[in-house]
């Protein structure tokens, strides 16, 4: 039994990794110019086309985007669980605590998965194995990564279930996923991700399958545990409402690229990309009751045929000739007087105009 | 669970009565057994009458059935026309067939599931296509062809294994007939396993298992295969019954004196006691196997609960 088994699940890890040399300041995860493509029978679908982002310990970054924007694929590439074939990482770096995950061997990556890097999936019912008890599935983490005995693993599972506030954990540890409610199942998913106190958790639409009231509870729990363990959290979602309360910064994705980054409240107040603007405008609001709901015209692009230039140009109200020709890079967003807005970037040639329209 | 088992056992009673009565009627519909006994010669009326009396053949069919069933519950399966007790025939035939079935079933389970898993995990590649083609070939060739061909090649030409079994029912003699008997079912099991593995390999819970950092072996065995086997077990259960009774062709090719062999003799000689006796036991085996599969289902899939 390893020594880490003796520290309780509830106690915070004592040793800060990479002490001394100021490594503490370096981001936990840095994704650099990541490219992922799917080689299908119909052609090559470019799902991720040069994504950059970083997460620090204790920080929450929300990745926002429609289905097919590449947000989940990016996460899967980071986790190393991309279906391959057809999915291939074709370029870039994924630096986790300074090491490029893409350069590690299969077994090294596997050992990082679950123990240092964990993931929570959208639909807890289908993401949990229907034929194993939740205790077994939680305990597996300790059995595999910590060589725990069956008995120890079960005890740990009960602790974890207590931790995510599942009532009567001891009695329910041998129950199966279908015997739990949706909210409880998602709590079990969270417990599973938390089991080995990872440094970073990726939550892929963790509340999409839940009732609104339960959504809030689950998000609250997640945020609380994240703060307690000082973990980095990547929150993937298409729900702008979920993001506002918990995230520190937001990256908006479109057609496999990040089109805007900003601290969360600034993004809501003053978007600097027409796509973000469109997303915010399409949230139903009480003061617009009775009026027609705004929708971004058109559909997200087919990843087999991403439009030339800015991928958003066919749907963009501001599109000019340059948008159809050149791909905009992520520009630093500044105030009128030229002062840089920290952490703000927009991949739009007309970010200035967009920013000031708001 | 206990109540469910009791209910199922009670349900077996009408099924048991129905099937045995049906087989009773069918055997008698074959013609007059006494005439068949004497072959081409006309029987001496006095002797024929004596036999008829002895075997209750003068009674109406339903009464014959009742008398037969009455004796059955005292574990008396009656005697054949040649005076041998059917119980002693059963005692020689069933252990032999049981051994053959055990060998065939083991081969079927190991290779069927193994090939199916391999094929499912390597979907669309060489291994997968080979398994698909090979199983299709096995399914389309009748058992007596594979039986005779393998017997000739392996048993006679190459001398790699004994060509017939005869009275010594030993493991090494049973391997060749076991392979022949298992072949078709094996092909079905492989295909069924492949299908369910392909279905489940992209399932969310398999992705979760990978994301948990479990070793591949554990992902495949504890998560993927465990779920994929549920429909396969159903097939295996019913097939167990079929293997017990349906080894007729294989048993004849390899001269194995098992259930199929005696059943065949019984039908040819219109020996109703033998046929009904054997079929009765087979019905019980079938029913038991079915119950077992249903119970196993609940063990394999906790979402199924019996009350």
Secondary-structure map:
The complex is a heterodimer of chains A (358) and B (307).
Chain A: E1 29-40, E2 43-55, E3 60-64, H1 71-79, E4 87-96, E5 99-100, H2 106-112, E6 117-120, H3 124-127, H4 134-146, H5 150-163, H6 169-172, H7 182-194, E7 200-204, H8 212-229, E8 232-237, H9 240-246, E9 249-254, E10 257-263, H10 264-269, H11 274-281, H12 321-325, E11 331-334, E12 340-346, H13 351-357
Parallel strand pairs in A: 3-8, 3-9, 6-7, 7-8
Antiparallel strand pairs in A: 1-2, 1-4, 4-5, 9-10, 10-12, 11-12
Helix pairs in contact in A: 4-5, 5-7, 7-8
Chain B: H1 2-29, H2 33-38, H3 45-54, H4 61-72, H5 86-121, H6 126-140, H7 143-157, H8 171-201, H9 204-211, H10 216-245, H11 248-253, H12 259-268, H13 272-300
* E-strand count of chain A: 12
What is the top-level CATH class of the largest domain in chain A? Alpha Beta
Radius of gyration of chain A (CA) equals: 21 Å
What is the average per-residue confidence, as pLDDT of chain B, rounded to a whole number?
Answer: 85
Oligomer: heterodimer
Q: Work out the strand percent of chain B.
A: under 5%
* Total tally of structural domains of chain A: 2
What is the count of DSSP helices of chain B, taking H or I runs of 4+ residues?
13
Task: Report the sheet with the most strands of chain A, covering strand number, pairing sense and barrel closure.
Answer: 8 strands, mixed
């Amino acid at each position: 039994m390893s020594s880490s088994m003796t520290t309780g699940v509830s106690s915070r890890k004592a040793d800060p990794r990479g002490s001394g040399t100021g490594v503490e300041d370096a981001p936990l995860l840095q994704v650099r110019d990541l490219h992922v493509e799917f080689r299908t029978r119909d052609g090559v679908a470019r799902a991720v086309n040069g994504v950059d982002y970083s997460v620090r310990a204790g920080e929450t970054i929300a990745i926002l985007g429609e289905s097919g924007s590449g947000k989940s694929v990016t996460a899967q590439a980071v986790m190393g669980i991309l279906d391959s074939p057809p999915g291939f990482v074709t370029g870039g770096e994924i630096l986790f605590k300074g090491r490029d995950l893409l350069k590690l061997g299969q077994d090294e990556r596997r050992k990082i998965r679950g123990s240092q890097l964990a993931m929570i999936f959208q639909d807890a019912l289908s993401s949990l194995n229907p034929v194993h008890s939740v205790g077994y599935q939680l305990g597996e983490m300790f059995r595999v990564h910590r060589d725990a005995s069956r008995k120890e693993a079960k005890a740990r599972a009960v602790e974890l279930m207590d931790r995510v506030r599942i009532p009567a954990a001891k009695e329910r540890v041998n129950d199966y996923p279908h015997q739990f409610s949706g909210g409880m199942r998602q709590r079990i998913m969270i417990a599973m991700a938390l089991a080995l106190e990872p440094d970073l958790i990726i939550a892929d639409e963790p509340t999409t399958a839940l009732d609104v009231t339960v959504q809030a509870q689950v998000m609250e729990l997640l945020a609380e545990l994240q703060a307690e363990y000082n973990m980095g959290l990547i929150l993937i979602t298409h729900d702008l409402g979920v993001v506002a309360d918990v995230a520190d910064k937001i990256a908006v994705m479109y057609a496999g690229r990040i089109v805007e980054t900003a601290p969360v409240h600034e993004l809501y107040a003053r978007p600097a990309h027409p796509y973000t603007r469109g997303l915010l405008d399409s949230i139903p609001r009480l003061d617009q009751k009775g009026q027609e709901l705004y929708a971004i015209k058109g559909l997200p692009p087919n990843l087999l045929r991403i439009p030339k230039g800015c991928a958003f140009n066919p749907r963009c109200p501001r599109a000019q000739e340059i948008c159809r020709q050149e791909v905009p890079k992520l520009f630093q967003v500044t105030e009128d007087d030229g002062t840089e807005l920290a952490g703000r970037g927009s991949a739009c040639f007309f970010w200035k105009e967009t920013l000031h329209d708001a | 669970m206990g109540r469910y088992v009791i209910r199922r056992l009670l349900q077996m009673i009408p099924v048991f009565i129905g099937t045995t009565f049906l087989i009773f009627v069918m055997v008698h519909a074959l013609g007059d057994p006494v005439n068949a006994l004497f072959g081409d010669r006309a029987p001496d009326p006095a002797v024929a009458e004596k036999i008829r009396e002895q075997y209750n053949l003068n009674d109406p069919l339903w009464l014959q059935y009742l008398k037969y069933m009455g004796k059955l519950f005292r574990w008396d399966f009656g005697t054949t026309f040649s005076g041998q007790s059917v119980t002693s025939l059963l005692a020689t035939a069933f252990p032999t067939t049981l051994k053959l079935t055990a060998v065939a079933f083991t081969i079927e389970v190991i290779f069927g599931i193994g090939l199916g898993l391999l094929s499912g995990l390597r979907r669309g590649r060489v291994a997968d296509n080979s398994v698909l083609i090979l199983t299709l070939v096995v399914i389309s060739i009748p058992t007596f062809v594979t039986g005779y061909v393998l017997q000739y090649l392996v048993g006679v030409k190459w001398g790699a294994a004994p060509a017939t079994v005869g009275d010594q029912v030993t493991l090494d003699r049973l391997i060749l007939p076991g392979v022949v008997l298992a072949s078709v079912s094996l092909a079905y099991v492989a295909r069924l396993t492949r299908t369910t593995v392909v279905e489940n390999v992209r399932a969310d819970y398999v992705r979760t298992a990978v994301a948990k950092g479990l070793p591949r072996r554990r992902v495949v065995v504890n998560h993927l295969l465990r779920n994929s086997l549920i429909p396969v077990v159903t097939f295996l259960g019913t097939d167990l019954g079929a293997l017990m009774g349906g080894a007729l062709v294989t048993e004849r090719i390899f001269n194995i004196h098992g259930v199929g062999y005696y059943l065949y003799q019984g039908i040819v000689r219109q020996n109703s006691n033998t046929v009904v006796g054997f079929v009765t036991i087979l019905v019980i085996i079938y029913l038991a196997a079915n119950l077992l599969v249903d119970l196993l289902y609940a063990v394999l899939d906790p979402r199924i609960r019996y009350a």
